[in-house]
UniProtKB/TrEMBL annotation:
Job of this protein: Catalyzes the insertion of molybdate into adenylated molybdopterin with the concomitant release of AMP.
Pathways involved: Cofactor biosynthesis; molybdopterin biosynthesis
UniProt keyword annotations, A-Z: Magnesium, Metal-binding, Molybdenum, Molybdenum cofactor biosynthesis, Transferase
Domain of life, source organism: Bacteria
Protein name: Molybdopterin molybdenumtransferase
Length: 314
């Protein structure tokens, strides 16, 4: 992949990731209808005895996800199996010098890490089953071994690191051994995401800050997993009107918001203080900044990413 400026817009980054992934889409497998929910249809099914001419093809469209209704349609036409895209295999690596593994005893002046669990939960919500490594220390050799080993065995490698030395070391490893499409060169940490190909995998380096991690997953990581399964179009994003000013943090693209409908059925978004796990756990969506660090005034219309509100999702 060719190198691009880190100043690409979020939309351009997502488009580049999706285009690259679609060009390297995964193989096809036949599965029973009982296991097809949420999978991406790879090929239009051949005609079955119960097919109505020119009917099923309008609804069983390749490169779309199989919903219960579409699976029921296939069953009603006599199809017992469908050809779907193989799910990408995913490795999750986390880099942190100070975080304590969940379940261990507290340590003074150190925090428990939750970034890996957030990432794993988002992946599982999308029907993917990641393989996780224990937290890596801020040691370049250890990071190099983990990244290069997983890149030989998985389709996607997601590296999550605290902003600081660990992020810089991970970026340096990816830059030295991978082909970087966008992100940082060397140890430049002032970049939200690094995207590269390395061996047989696509690698993404993500910031561990909760709101930015969730937002990067729902935009860039989903563009990658969708593209590998042959989905060429972006997911729909709902929009809402801000009830108050929303200041995104320095270099931030995502911020938690609460949602409510007015009596006129207009969706409104109210900013929530903070971007940590408490704010993330209570919000219904993330607002997307048009540019990093933006200040949006009350009344502005903002794009949303559904987080704790499945009704907003596509």
């Amino acid at each position: 992949m060719s190198r691009h400026s880190a100043q690409l817009t979020l939309e351009a980054q997502c488009a580049l990731v999706r285009e690259t992934a679609c060009a390297n889409r995964l193989g096809v497998e036949s599965i029973a209808l009982s296991r097809a929910h949420g999978r991406v249809l790879a090929e239009e099914p051949a005609h079955a005895p119960g097919d109505v001419p020119h009917d099923a093809g309008r609804f069983l469209i390749p490169a779309t996800r199989l919903t219960p209704a579409r699976i029921a349609l296939a069953a009603s036409r006599g199809h017992g199996q469908l050809k779907v895209a193989r799910k990408p295999t995913v490795a999750v690596l986390t880099v942190s010098e100070g975080a304590i593994e969940p379940g261990l005893s507290p340590v003074a002046n150190r925090l428990f890490g939750g970034a890996r669990d957030l990432l794993v939960g988002l992946l599982r919500d999308d029907g993917l089953e990641p393989t996780c490594w224990p937290t890596l220390s801020e040691d370049e050799r250890q990071i190099e071994i983990a990244v290069r080993d997983t890149a030989c065995a998985f389709d996607m490698v997601l590296v999550c690191a605290d902003m600081g030395p660990g992020y810089g070391l991970a970026a340096s490893v990816i830059d030295r051994f991978g082909s970087v499409a966008f992100g940082s060169r060397g140890v430049d940490c002032d970049v939200p995401v690094v995207f590269a190909s390395l061996d047989q995998a696509f690698v993404m380096l993500l910031r561990a800050e909760p709101a930015q991690l969730a937002g990067a997953y729902m935009t860039l990581v989903r563009s990658l997993s969708d593209g590998l399964q042959g989905i060429e179009t972006a997911r729909r994003q709902p929009r809402a009107r801000l009830t108050g000013d929303l200041a995104f943090g320095t270099d931030a693209r995502f911020a938690p918001v609460e949602l409510a409908y007015t009596e006129a059925a207009v969706l409104e978004a109210t900013p929530i203080d903070g971007t940590g796990f408490p704010a993330l756990a209570t919000c219904r969506a993330l607002a997307v900044a048009p540019v990093r660090g933006a200040l949006l005034r009350a009344g502005a219309v903002v794009d949303l990413l559904a987080l704790n509100d499945p009704g907003l999702a596509e």
